[in-house]
Amino acid sequence: MSPSAGGLVVFLLSVQVIQSQDGWRVNYLKTDVCALKGSTVYISCDITHPPGIDPSDIKDRFWFTKEKDGEPVDLGTDSEYSGRVTYVCYSDSCYLTITDVRESDSAEYKLTFMTNKPGEKYTGSPGVTLSVTDSGLQVQVRRSDSTWLELTCHSSCVLSDHPEYDWFKNEENIKTGSSLLVSSGSTDRYSCDLRGSWDNGSPAVYGPQRPSVSVSPSAVMLEGDSVTLTCSTDANPAANYTWYKEHEDSPRASGQNFTITDFTAEHSGNYYCEAQNEMGRSNSTLLRIPSSGKGGCTWSTTKDIVIFVLLLIIIIVLAVPYIKRRMFPERPEQRPENGTQIPLTNAGHQEE
Ligand SMILES: *[C@@H]1O[C@H](CO)[C@@H](O)[C@H](O)[C@H]1NC(C)=O
Ligand SMILES: *[C@@H]1O[C@H](CO)[C@@H](O)[C@H](O)[C@H]1NC(C)=O
Ligand SMILES: *[C@@H]1O[C@H](CO)[C@@H](O)[C@H](O)[C@H]1NC(C)=O
Predict the structure, then answer these.
(1) Which range is the signal sequence, renumbered to this chain (predicted)?
(2) Structural domain count of the chain
(3) Ligand 3 pocket, residue 281 CB under 6 Å
(4) Co-location of 56 and 169 in the same domain
């Protein structure tokens, strides 16, 4: 059934109730009440009665949520509520106070009473729906000026009274009040709690701790590869991330992961990330991205080695005849010696 259809049925039923009850009616001031666990809830209503009725004819007023054998059970007699409920009734209005509300108190509360006709009862239905939440508290951060932040405590449910909050810095109670001023850039943890309740309170808000950076894949990179730098930190509210290359003013990327596709030598260098949330910001240490991995070979170094080896071969080829000449100098010189020996012998012969 759609909510509007449900509302229509309830409306029709209540019209029927009113018609059959000769002008009796209970108007609840609020039909939906949300409360934090441990707080105090006030529920109030006005009774409309047929003309000519003396308010003193309204008797035995009480509030209930449960029925037993078709009869409403007075909250005041319910052991689950003992010591926690107070009724205050004036001539034609009634108030219910429940202190230290629990999640099990979430229910529909209705007022019932006896009318002037003997044995006739009237119940104000539909009643007031109470929802009790565990905490639902949230610290909201607003920048007050360049150095101060204003923290306020908010509930996911609309509180039925003006709540007072305790403020905590690193779990130590430092103040009571609706808001707290703190300096920005702090990594201290701030939280709020409903005054006098001993629950968890809100989650703490805090600026980012120094982010840690990592690179994936961590193995050797080749030109044309893609590489992803990841920045992470602990912060609440969650931080956003910006990537910088050392000695550059404008950011390279935003987002927790920074992927460099088509890696080139230009990409090598030192990178860092900045994590920022409403509470502050923090820069990581430098992450070094080498142009080639240690001991690894990129295509450019392979090319260099090939060129080097080729040059070496050319040099050797060119140098061999020269080296040969220098290492075995006797042989070529022997020929002219022999040549001269022949004339010498000839000369010898000539001498002989
Ligand atoms: C960043 O990458 C990691 C894995 O490397 C992944 O688990 C995470 O979800 C990514 N974060 C974002 C915001 O894309
Ligand atoms: C990051 O968050 C801060 C506030 O927390 C905001 O001022 C800033 O513009 C954000 N930066 C990016 C890149 O989303
Ligand atoms: C982080 O680095 C950026 C860019 O160099 C700079 O603007 C910012 O002030 C630095 N943040 C901190 C907290 O040092």
Answers:
(1) 1-20
(2) 3
(3) yes
(4) no
Q: Are residues 10 and 124 in the same domain?
A: yes
Please report, in angstroms and rounded to a whole number, the separation of the first and last CA atoms in the chain.
145
Q: What is the pLDDT of residues 191-235, one digit of tens each?
A: 998 886 656 688 999 999 999 999 988 767 788 888 999 999 999
Q: Alpha carbon of 226 to those of 213, 217, 236, 274, 299: distances in Å? A: 17, 9, 31, 22, 15
* pLDDT tens string 101-155: 999 999 999 999 988 888 888 999 999 999 888 767 889 999 989 899 999 998 7
pLDDT digits (tens, 9 = 90+) for 2-51: 444 333 333 433 333 433 457 889 999 988 888 878 889 999 999 988 88
Ligand sitting nearest the alpha carbon of 210: 3
Write the DSSP assignment of 100-157 as a string of letters.
S--GGG-EEEEEEEE-SSTT-EEE--S-EEEEEES--EEEEEEE-SSSEEEEEEEESS
42 DSSP β-pair partners: 97
- Alpha carbon distance 284, 276 (integer Å): 11
| 255 lies in some domain | yes
Kindly report the average pLDDT of the chain as a whole number.
Answer: 82
Rg of the chain over CA atoms, in angstroms? 45
Q: Does the residue 319 lie in any domain? A: no
- Give 126 Cα–ligand 2 centroid separation in angstroms: 47
Using a 6 Å cutoff on CB, does residue 276 contact ligand 1? no
Residue 271 lies in domain: 212-289
Token pair listed for 127: 């009643």
Tell me how long the chain is: 352
Residue nearest to atom 1 of ligand 3 (CA): 283
Ligand 1 center–CA 257 separation, angstroms: 6
| In-domain check, residue 340 | no
Does residue 216 share a domain with residue 158?
A: no
Q: Are residues 118 and 12 in the same domain?
A: yes
Alpha carbons 159 and 153: distance in angstroms, whole number? 12
Residues 10 and 47 both lie in one domain: yes
Is there a domain that residue 73 lies in? yes
